[in-house]
Design brief:
Layout lengths: L8 E5 L3 H13 L4 E5 L2 H10 L4 E5 L8 H10 L8 E6 L4 H7 L6 E4 L4 H16 L2 H8 L3 H12 L6 H14 L3 H14 L3 H13 L3 H14 L4 H13 L3 H14 L4
Parallel strand pairs: 1-2, 1-3, 3-4, 4-5
Helix pairs in contact: 2-3, 6-7, 7-8, 8-9, 9-10, 10-11, 11-12, 12-13
């Protein structure tokens, strides 16, 4: 399908005026009419508070202040972007810190500079196609109808879509939100039976934590960190577990390890 941004709200974030102008022109070339831009993270967050964007094209390196990864983290933490939002990271580098941060809050895709209109179009088309399945689920979530959203996830999964892992993750998140820990654990177990994925492994540990099985949660998190030392979120949950067990020294040490590993995350 040809890329069509005519009904999309687009945000461009880049510290260079020339790059913002180029990305605006690319958006217009694909029929976008509602395009805003920001030159830094502070401006971007302010705009996201005022408007829900469908497509965010964000440079990773924005000079002083927040970088693109930190904008993504804050936007997700503050629910400024939805499941169906396309967040595309634009970068001229592939630093270790960027990869580390992206393991927890990963963008939907990357565009590496320099790129042309054809590459821009192809990358967005692929993501847009994948995200199309989420629009109905998103609508139910925005209406605070998590039960309907869960049912829609289940229905879509029955047709074995290409983005099944993404839908499984959304379903597990929704089950956690309504405190249906048994169903959330079943989703995580299903994912782990297919592939050893860190977000599903940490999901099982979180369920143990919610059920007050703190010692089991601690062991699961320690095992996850041993297997995937770059998964920064596991350190956060391990520190939280140590804290509730009264071991504040280990909690502090765990967080120090995480900061040393990935200061951006």
């Amino acid at each position: 399908m040809a890329l069509d941004l005519s009904d999309k709200k687009v945000l461009v974030v880049d510290d260079f005026p020339e790059m913002r102008s180029m990305l605006r022109k690319m958006g217009v070339a694909f029929r976008a009419t509602d395009i805003d831009d920001a030159k830094n993270g502070e401006e971007a967050i302010k705009l996201m508070v005022k408007k829900k964007y469908d497509v965010i094209l964000c440079d990773y390196n924005l000079g002083e202040g927040k970088d693109g990864q930190q904008i993504l983290e804050e936007a997700k933490d503050r629910n400024l972007i939805n499941y169906a939002t396309i967040f595309m990271m634009i970068t001229a580098e592939n630093t270790y810190e960027m990869v580390m941060g992206a393991m927890e809050y990963h963008p939907d895709g990357y565009l590496t500079k320099p790129f042309n209109k054809n590459e821009f179009s192809k990358r967005l088309e692929i993501i847009q196609s994948r995200k199309a399945d989420l629009a109905e689920i998103e609508k139910a979530i925005l209406q605070n109808d998590n039960m309907t959203a869960i049912r829609l996830c289940t229905n879509k999964l029955s047709s074995k879509p290409r983005n099944s892992m993404e839908i499984l993750r959304i379903k597990a998140d929704l089950c956690e939100q309504i405190n249906d820990y048994e169903e959330a654990a079943a989703v995580y177990d299903k994912v782990l039976s297919i592939r050893d994925i860190p977000w599903a492994a940490i999901g099982i540990a979180k369920i143990r934590y919610y059920n007050k099985d703190y010692l089991v949660a601690k062991d699961l998190l320690m095992d996850l960190i041993e297997k995937t030392p770059s998964f920064v979120e596991a350190y956060d949950w391990l520190a939280k577990t140590y804290e509730i067990l009264g071991d504040t020294k280990e909690a502090q040490r765990t967080l120090s390890d995480a900061v040393a590993l990935s200061p951006k995350a």
